[in-house]
Design goal:
Structural class: mainly beta
Number of domains: 1
Strand content: 35-45%
Mean pLDDT: 85
Low-confidence stretches: 1-29
CATH topology: Jelly Rolls
Number of helices: 1
Distance between the termini: 19 Å
CATH architecture: Sandwich
Order of helices and strands: HEEEEEEEEEEEEEEEEE
Amino acid sequence: MSKHSLWHRETLYGRDRTRMCQFSPPTFARGQFGNFSHFCAPEEYEDNNTIDGWTSTLVGASTLVLLDRVGGWLQLLGAGAENDGVNMQQEHESFLPAADRDIHFGCSIEMIDAEQTDFFIGLAPKDTTVIATPPTDLIGYWTHDGDSNLDFQCQSAANGLVAAVDTGVDLVSGTAIELGFFVNGVTSVHTYINGVEDSTFAVAAAADIPAVEMALTFAMLSGEVAANDLKIDWYSIVQCYA
């Protein structure tokens, strides 16, 4: 098994739906740090629209909702106006691409309306308006209102802007999809959709991999006058180091 397939939850945690943190010694011979969540622990949800360890910026009267679904889901819910939404980032910029420091990310998400929702999912510096004013350093997935295309982008400010690439996969309203990527040190980036490496994305050049600290980011905006959303079933992110 190639090391860039390690973002798979079965390999990463040793168990499937429980999301138990059971790192496999043969797989992770090096040190690692990271986190995961099913958003089902009550102590994570301190009060309405606040989750421990995350900084959330709400546009309009948008909300964070813990859904009553098996395993726990988090819903980033727009308030009903166009461009309402939520910008949600972990409080610390904990992840820095570097030689011998591979990053493995995976998540499962779903939306009410795939054609009328903007989202960004991945790594970016702390920023309260990731979608409206995208940062120049980032690694992650995009979709934009007006179509259901799933795009991926990896760019470094030091090397200039790089256009997002259409993965060829269309998002489907009301249908969950698993997204993942593997950052191979500062050498390349590989993307995974529903557990399969995406052959349409040209592996990012080393110069396009950001050399800055970044935070895990989930951001969404509604593309119409409707309460559209981004639902997160689970996420996992781990950075391994020598």
